[in-house]
Specification:
The protein has about 100 residues and is of the alpha/beta class. Strand 1, helix 2 and strand 2 form a beta-alpha-beta unit. It starts with 7 loop residues before the first helix and ends in a 10-residue tail after the last helix.
């Protein structure tokens, strides 16, 4: 029996996680909280990722991402230079609310 994906976002997300060799206990960072990013977050959680962090520059997308239980943290990438963004990703999770 052949397996067919529900939609393009599901197939693209699954392929990306396969190529990244996402395994139970992994920490996953997803750039973008649109349809594709949220699908990738859900699939990473399904695959057993211990921590899922979603990045986006749009507050309304981060607000939506924060509603999903598996997402450890959602954070803005709007104006921060790379080093502070990396530091933000690496810090331990605190509250589940979106932060900037």
């Amino acid at each position: 029996m052949a397996l067919s994906w529900v939609n393009c976002a599901m197939g693209t997300s699954a392929e990306g996680l396969d190529r990244a060799n996402c395994q139970p206990g992994d920490h996953v960072v997803i750039q973008g909280a649109g349809g594709l990013g949220l699908c990738a977050a859900a699939l990473a959680t399904y695959r057993g990722a211990a921590k899922v962090i979603v990045l986006d520059r749009l507050p309304e997308r981060l607000s939506l991402a924060a509603r999903f239980e598996p997402i450890t943290r959602s954070t803005s990438t709007s104006s921060a230079p790379p080093t502070p963004r990396r530091d933000r990703i690496m810090e331990p999770p605190t509250a589940r609310a979106p932060t900037s």
